Amino acid sequence: MSQTVHSSGDHQPDENRRDFLTLATTAVGVVGTGVALWPFVDSMNPSKDVLALASVEVNLANIAVGQAVKVMWRGKPVFIRHRTEREINEANEVALNELVDPQADDARVEKKEWLIVVGVCTHLGCIPMGTATGEARGDYDGWYCPCHGSHYDTSGRIRRGPAPKNLEVPTYTFLTDTSVRIG
Amino acid sequence: MSAPQWNNKVVKWVDDRLPVISMLHHSAYEYPTPKNLSYMWNFGSLAGFVLVTMILTGIFLVMNYTPHTSMAFESVERIMRDVNHGWLIRYIHMNGASMFFICVFIHIFRGLYYGSYKAPREMLWWIGILILLAMMATAFMGYVLPWGQMSFWGATVITNLFSAFPIIGDPLVTWLWGGFSVDNPTLNRFFSLHYLMPFVILGLVVLHVWALHSVRSNNPTGVEIKTPQDSIPFHPYYTIKDLFGLGVFLIFFCAFVFFAPDYLGHPDNYIPANPLVTPPHIVPEWYFLPFYAILRSIDFTILGIPAKLLGVLAMFASIVILFVIPWLDTSKVRSSKFRPVYKWFFWLFVIDTFILGYCGAKAPDDYFMGIPGLKVIVMGQLSTLYYFVHFLVVMPLVGKLERTKPLPASISESVLKEGANA
Ligand code: FES
Question: What architecture (CATH level 2) is domain A50-182?
């Protein structure tokens, strides 16, 4: 290091350089810490084996018209309902502007006799009733969530209660007329 | 205060190198304490006692607990039936959580009544709120571990709260779960964090006591210690008083552990978790009920913010608001003893929290105390409103408008006067 005595004006460039170095070092330190933390944060995301179980095939042959079943997909239930003519009509008759989360029935089904939705209430995640025969299906003939009183219609759309959204439609493909792969 | 001189050679040798003995001596022996503390000042040390109890019983429970969805429920039942004294250790732990909240809630109400949050005790107050938040997180995760129906569905409902946040909501919930629903990864991480949190709380308690000892204890008059006449050393006066309180408290605690161990819990948690069936009525543990009532009472939209998000924000706000009350309260007088108007509002607030608790326990469409026409949801909304009005309107206004009673010149004077009147 130089031992020269600087006049006060001469300090300026030196201090600027020092400020820059401090800032740059701090920035590298912060970014570096962030990068080092990321693996830990990401380790809490779904792991590969969890992701690998992300699809399931269902045989529809045994589900009679008017019947509905629950299948497990990604640890949560999926409702598959074989809708009757009347239920399909009900779902199509309602005016879109009457809906909380407006969505046409066509946009929610691939084949209109099969309604496939994730059976998790969009409010706080309870499982609505109405799949098993004899269970309360709410005021709109679909499902009724007992936790805080959400009513879903025959298209799984939210009609009344605290839930903000329609029952989610999972991605699915019909492999044949009587079998479907969810996920 | 100068460091004490130690006669014992070993003590002195250690203390010269690490003054931990002097520190303990300062804080648990000669700590000058206001001489007029009432029994309301027992609950801090009681809460500390319960924390230690929880950590100890927890460590022994872990020796027999298995954090896996297929074995958790049965391992808890095995603790109850087969492990020697397992039932006792688990019942202490289970009821200990409730006892912890009882102590801490009384401790907080005490602070609110006597203005213990006011300058210079703001930091002390903040650390206390952080302890409350950490306790809530710990209790919630602990309740999930037995993997009963309420464990599972409580976890589902509460973690789903975070889905209310726009955009980040869903990925955040997936991240919390480590999957697409509450499942084994969720149970594992809750177990890990449930073991960690009590030590975080312990650290916060150390800071809390540190802050306390630097600003000194508040007291029923709210007047600071001015002369040595106002205080007495912590030991033996308050060690004995705390111990006596502990004895009474332990009778209460043991009454639950031995005679009504499941009274405070929900019977559905003795049904193994079933992801396909939601219990008809999900209720949180009693200590969360007021907050749950606030969450549920928001069933309307304001400015396009959906009800679900508003409810979540209101629930968080109900605790976060405590951080700013040192500034919301405009009164120069600490203790409500000398605040003839605010005192009534304080008790109204206490009643309000009980009403909220009641509403949280009932279904929204039930009738409040069976009163026809008065729905629980409406009563919940009114009490939620008062909860916030109390802090945001009553505190600032009453502090400004009220004529307080004259304060005693000192703690000592108030004690002598009360003695003369007795
Ligand atoms: S979870 Fe379904 S209504 Fe709240």
Answer: 3-layer Sandwich (2.102)
